[in-house]
Amino acid sequence: GAVVSQHPSRVICKSGTSVKIECRSLDFQATTMFWYRQFPKQSLMLMATSNEGSKATYEQGVEKDKFLINHASLTLSTLTVTSAHPEDSSFYICSASLREGTDTQYFGPGTRLTVL
Amino acid sequence: QKEVEQDPGPLSVPEGAIVSLNCTYSNSAFQYFMWYRQYSRKGPELLMYTYSSGNKEDGRFTAQVDKSSKYISLFIRDSQPSDSATYLCAMGPGNQFYFGTGTSLTVIP
């Protein structure tokens, strides 16, 4: 149980385009979903926390107009990288929690974004 | 000071060895402690989840939490080449979790 999927697993795009990444909880309803980015040999950096039906809470330094997060249902959250630039190239990982706060997080397999 | 400190390694051990991975933290409010395993280019996979102090065992893996020392450990017995991965500790008070930088482990056949 507690499987989280992400799509696509890998995307290459041109600078200036927008990219949408989907995160789905396959066998449970996720009250809270999290979006992280990870640079090579570095730990996860939390970008934002989203609760179904409400606006995402962004971490300091993360531009909410650039990284649009939509958590439309209890099983789906999307991250859209708008007007992507090469510095946005990274590994983006989502996670989902069964309940708010105290529950553990289950991670998706990640999406490798390369912006040319 | 970082919330969570973890030695990045790399750590290299022969097959069959006992591996000890550790993290320290500074916030005494942390109650929830997790260990994740992450293979290259994959998302983290939950290995162990512990609430408060004590030990938890699952197969070849044992997680220990010492809240008095603010120190957590993950032990891997009879290590296998398939255990080669990056191991991340994560912890928090419940409403937010903080991750270590990960320790890279290689088990040599």
Q: Which regions of chain B have little confidence, pLDDT < 50, spanning 5+ residues?
A: none
What is the N-to-C order of secondary-structure elements of chain B (H for helix, E for strand)?
A: EEEEEEEEEEE
Helix content of chain A: under 10%
Structural class call of chain A reads mainly beta
Radius of gyration of chain A: 13 Å
Q: What is the compact description of this entry?
A:
Chain A is mostly beta strands. Chain A is built from no helices and 11 strands.
Describe what this molecule looks like in 3D.
The complex is a heterodimer of chains A (116) and B (109). Chain A is mainly beta and 116 residues long. Chain A has no helices and eleven strands. Chain A has strands at 4-7, 10-13, 19-25, 32-38, 44-51, 57-58, 67-73, 76-81, 90-97, 105-107, 111-115. In chain A, a hairpin with a 5-residue loop joins strand 5 and strand 6. By secondary structure, chain B is mainly β. Helix content of chain B is 0%, strand content 56%. At the A-B interface, strand 9 and strand 10 of A face strand 4 and strand 5 of B.
Features:
heterodimer, A: 116 residues, mainly beta, 53% strand, globular, B: 109 residues, five-stranded antiparallel sheet
Q: What's the structural blueprint in terms of helices and strands?
A:
The complex is a heterodimer of chains A (116) and B (109).
Chain A: E1 4-7, E2 10-13, E3 19-25, E4 32-38, E5 44-51, E6 57-58, E7 67-73, E8 76-81, E9 90-97, E10 105-107, E11 111-115
Parallel strand pairs in A: 2-11
Antiparallel strand pairs in A: 1-3, 3-8, 4-5, 4-9, 5-6, 7-8, 9-10, 9-11
Chain B: E1 4-6, E2 11-14, E3 19-25, E4 32-38, E5 45-51, E6 54-58, E7 61-66, E8 71-76, E9 85-92, E10 98-99, E11 103-108
Parallel strand pairs in B: 2-11
Antiparallel strand pairs in B: 1-3, 3-8, 4-5, 4-9, 6-7, 7-8, 9-10, 9-11
